[in-house]
Amino acid sequence: MYSKKVMEHFMNPRNTGEIENADGVGIAGNMICGDVMQMFIKVNKSADGNVHNPNHDLIEDIKFKTMGCAAAIATSSMITEIARGKTIGESLKITKADVAEALDGLPPIKMHCSNLASDALTEAIYDYFSKNKYEISEGLKNAHERIKKERDYAESIGEK
Fold this sequence. Notes:
16% strand; alpha+beta; Sufe protein. Chain: A
């Protein structure tokens, strides 16, 4: 059974759509359930003195497009609410548990949906770093490789 918050975010999702000329775009999907999420971020670059640290840049706008179940749509909506106005560094720390908790819980079989939401955001941030040729931490590289491997595998199964 879904919580009232899950149903609210499913029935009235926040921040849907695309951002034209997004600073970062990320895609995550699950081959088992077929859910696919696309996340778009617009970033406000900030400077600490004369040194730019992309981890301190603010996500000033964030939108999503999701094809999936109620939990997939609700988690996409919720992660946009959590990440908007946060720094890149803070946004990278958002976990699937944070998303599920903000929605007053998810059924255990739907926890993978909150993983997809945080994965799509991670991929959008990775894209932002890549486009701007910023140094990418090992943690972000590893997350990107894991997400990419899962997406590639899902696509290869779909082609058969």
